[in-house]
Amino acid sequence: xxxxxxxxxxxxxxxxxxxAGSTACGSSEKTVEKTSTTDxxxxxxxxxxxxxxxxxxxxxxxxxxxFVVDAGLAAGATYQWIxxxxxxxxFKKGAKGxxxxxxxxxxxxxxxxxxxxxxxxxxxxxxxxxxALAPLGAGIDALKNLPSKLRNGxxxxxxxxxxxxxxxxxxGASAGAPVKDQVPSASQLAKGS
Length: 193
Fold this sequence. Notes:
With 193 residues, the protein is mostly helical. The protein is 64% helix and 6% strand. A hairpin with a 7-residue loop joins strand 1 and strand 2.
């Protein structure tokens, strides 16, 4: 039975793509030789393509940038799916679309908590950010249980999120890393990161 040309072309294209992808994603390692006085040569395996900052100034710069992105995503999710509906009264009993708003707020709360923890970790790479965020650790940790409170209809949880996000934004601005709201996509929100 003859196979249509179209099927052959699709199959050939997919095979080539898989072959190229597996070749590109292989675990190639390059070896670097080091000489010392005690050993003639020691070989250290270094994975190819792993970027690393070379100076402490670059490490701080990347830490600050990562902090700004993570805190901005947390702030955007909080405003878009928690604060805005809360101010509009979408969490009140009997409100139209209440269940949908609560589910979205719960997802946004979990996402914001995840991004705030990542921002807190990134802030450790910059001394000014680490100092500015140190007093906020307990407030960020307290947000862990708030997504479930939001899903259960506790509207005070929305104000808690808003307060902590405001504190993080203020701490970032005082350390030279101003945070702007960045609304995450629905897929980012669903994945949680």
